[in-house]
Amino acid sequence: MNSQIVTGNLWTAHKIENYYIVRLQDRANVIEALKDFITYEHIKCGKISGVGIVKEMTLRFLDPTVKKYLYTHLNNPIDVQDISGCISEFEGNIELSLNATMDWKNETTLSGHLMTAIVYGCTEFLFYALNNEEDLAEKELNLCTTSFWSSN
Predict the structure, then answer these.
(1) pLDDT by residue (tens digit) across 3-19?
(2) Which PROSITE patterns does the record associate with it (predicted)?
(3) Residue 3: is it exposed, middle or buried by C-beta count within 10 angstroms (0-12/13-18/19+)?
(4) Does residue 99 lie in a domain region?
(5) Which of 73, 104, 134, 147 is 20–30 Å from 18 (CA)?
(6) How many domains does one find in the chain?
(7) Which of 54, 2, 26 is nearest to 12 (CA)?
(8) Res 135: pLDDT
(9) How many angstroms separate the Cα of 47 from the Cα of each of 4, 70, 85?
């Protein structure tokens, strides 16, 4: 098993084969730090999932009734139960798409597309990189067997 520690300006990662455990530094911008990590490791495709405490977070939601995006900005530290998403390459650019889910006031759940967030203490991610054609073909979804919602 191939294992090593990789360190950047805003993060530290423990690499095991195609998996990484990435810890972001306190006060790091989550999006910027993860993009720095992805660039440093030359990752073009993968899945990411994490937990942690963040502050100064902005989430984006789609309001289907008006077909427009709404934004919510949170200033207080908040425990995020799930930050998950994917990394993909589109027209030569690396794209990072993350969604966040957390408990909010009065036992409600808040979830949306993560636009910005600042680490407050500790935030960690498990990352699985798919960087070659063999990995992509092996992990590719078979859309013919995927269940779809039915309107019936």
Answers:
(1) 899 999 999 999 998 89
(2) PPC
(3) exposed
(4) yes
(5) 147
(6) 1
(7) 26
(8) 46
(9) 20, 26, 6
Structure tokens at 96: 């990072």
Burial call 101-120: b when 16+ CB within 10 Å, e when fewer: ebeeeeeeebebbbbbbbbb
pTM, full prediction: 0.82
Is 147 contained in some domain? Answer: no
Four-residue CA torsion sign, 146, 90, 94, 44: positive
pLDDT band at 141 (very low <50, low <70, confident <90, very high): very low
Are the beta carbons of 126 and 20 closer than 8 angstroms?
yes
Is residue 67, in this structure, part of any structural domain at all?
yes
Examine residue 141 and state whether it is found in any structural domain, yes or no. no
Which domain covers residue 36, as residue numbers?
3-130
Residues 32, 29: Cα–Cα separation, whole Å: 5
Please give the Cα distance from 120 to 136 (Å, whole number).
34
The pLDDT of 76-88, averaged and rounded, is: 93
pLDDT at 91: 86
Distance (Å, whole) CA 8 – CA 115: 22
pLDDT of 150 reads: 37
